[in-house]
Each structure stands twice: as C-alpha cells, then as structure tokens.
Amino acid sequence: MQLTDHRDIAASPETVWASILDPEVLKACIPGCESLTGSPEAGYEAIVVQKVGPVKAKFTGVVTLSDMVAGQSLTITGEGKGGPAGFAKGGAKVALAPEIPNNWASLEPFKVEAPAGCILNAQRPAAVAVRHVLGHFVPDVILGAIHQMRPGTVPAEGAGALWNIHISARPVAGNMPPDMRPQRAEVLMFNSGGSGARPTQDGMGATAFPSGVHTMSIEATEHVGPVIFWRKELRDGSGGAGKFRGGLGQSIEIAPAAGHEFYFNAMFDRCENAARGRAGGEAGLPGNVSLDDGTKLNGKGRQYVPAGKRLRLEAPGGGGYGPPAERSAEDQARDKARNYVK
C-alpha cells in the first residue's frame, strides 16, 4: 500500500483562484456531491451521498471559505451529518504560490509506504477492523522506540485504546413492572483506563492518552436508555508501582432497568496484556469483563446481559515509571492507604 498524490494544474494563479470561488467547480471536486448552493461570502450548503462501509448515506452540511487573501490563499472547511452513518468533517488549506521561498520542500508531497503485514496495512484475518484500537496503540509503539533513544522523556504505557461499549437495550416480554415504561434504546459510551506514569509525575486516572476523549455523565446516559449505573469509580490497586505510579483504571457496573435486558458490543483491550512500566516501573492491572455473579465475559464481541444481572467492567491501569523503591516514603504510604497500587 502506498499513499501519495501530486497534481499539476496547467493554469495561471488568477484562473485557479476564480475556479476555487466557482460553486460548480467546488461541487465537481467533492465526491458524491449532488448540490452546492450559496456564495463564497456566506458559505455553501451541500448535499453529498457517500458509502460508509456497507451503509450508503446522504450527508447534509455546510462548506465555508475563510482566511481569504485575494488571489493568494484561503481555507476550505466542510462538515455534515449522515444520520446512522455518523458525521463527517474536513478541510483544506489552499495556497497559490507559483514562486515560493526557500522552504519549498515543505510543500512537496509525502510518500508513505506501508508493507503488507505491518500495523498500518494488516492483512486478513488480523483483528484491526476497529479503527480506535489501531489509532490508540500506535503511540505506545512509537513512544517505546523513542524511550530507547531518549530515556527519561516519554511516559510508560497506558490503557491505550478506549473502553467503548455499545448497548442495545430492550424490554423483556411479560416481565415489565406496572410502573415501568418499556423502552428500546441504543447507548454508546466512551470509557478510559489509566494513563502511564510520566518521568517526573504519576499517571492520570481514568484518562485517555493521547486522545483525551471524554464521555457524557452517567445521569444523562440513564435518561436516554433503560440502564442503571450502580458503580463508576477509580479501580482499586490498578496503577503500576514505580518511582512514579501509573494512573488508575475504572470500575463500572451497569445493569438493565427493571423489566429489561441488553446485548452489548465489547471493544476492550489490554485484558491479557497489561500496560507495561518503563525504566524499572511495574505493569498496571489488565482489564477484566464479567457479570456480577463472576461469569467471565470476552473483551471482544456481542454478548448478553439478562434481566437481573449486572455487567462489570474493570478498565486497565497504567504502567509505573522508575523503580518502586525510589518512590518517596510519603507517597508510598498514601498509595497503600488509598489502595492505589496492587
């Protein structure tokens, strides 16, 4: 797989600039664009039909032109919504520079080679279909290489991929309390384990690194679907020990509301391979998925939670940094009192 592109436009800068401001030209440049109406000053409204995986969707959105320097440069920004297919957003910085200064190499195209079998060009049946997993594990690989070249500059491994969960809740026939309204709902949550300890600081608990993704409150989630959160707290003992401690994961307990059951799609990682410490630091606890009766569940795939049971998610902790013996006595005492490390 090679990713590269380079286009030569055999026209004067004046002609190219006029074409950029022409809505018909812009429409032709957007794959699947059915209509584009408006003006450069007020922006454009667009309707675009695209296929996202197996889903063909119609996106409605806006295209704006900003930061315009007449005849020289502008920024094109577009965003739209496609219903079940989600949303799309993108942009381009356009600069017309037929004669450019001595930093011209910064405008040359990049060529990316991804040999078959590498993490960016995995071959079937490699389990890399979920893009958030691929994107969140690449940084730990790169940081591990940097650590070998520049020790003391990058953090230990963290939870990596988000612990996303998609819940499909539905009522159970003949088991609905009289005061409960039967409800079907699809609920998507983003959860985080602990980040790795840093060379001079402890890791952050329940914090996605490097994405920084947050989720909505559990109260808001309970409002839109028949689910109840019995627990959502920092996970005891999940941080890896070290001179600087790894961040703590989360303990989350979810149950269907009375008279309901749900299936969930698990998208969890680090259930078997814990986040490793760095420079003598210890690994954090791996993740775990189960029911409240102790039934072990899988970290991947669609699974069932019957009425009356609770789903328990134990998100992984981050690795520690540096030898645990070098941690200050005060911090060790606090870790023990608060059950921060295993």
Question: TL;DR of this structure?
Answer:
The chain folds into two domains: 2-100, Alpha-D-Glucose-1,6-Bisphosphate, Chain A, domain 4 (2-Layer Sandwich); 155-338, no CATH class. The protein is built from five helices and 15 strands.
Main attributes of the structure:
342 residues; alpha+beta; Alpha-D-Glucose-1,6-Bisphosphate, Chain A, domain 4; 5 helices; 30% strand
Written description of the protein model:
This protein is an alpha+beta fold. It folds into two domains: 2-100, START domain (Alpha-D-Glucose-1,6-Bisphosphate, Chain A, domain 4), CATH 3.30.530.20; 155-338, no CATH class. The protein is built from five helices and 15 strands. The chain has helices at 13-20, 23-29, 131-149, 218-224, 329-338, and strands at residues 2-3, 33-39, 43-52, 55-69, 73-81, 87-95, 112-113, 164-171, 185-189, 227-234, 250-256, 260-267, 288-291, 300-305, 311-314. The strands form four sheets. It has a five-stranded antiparallel beta sheet with strand order 2-3-4-5-6, with helices on one face. Strand 2 (33-39) and strand 3 form a beta hairpin. The radius of gyration is 25 Å and the shape is globular.
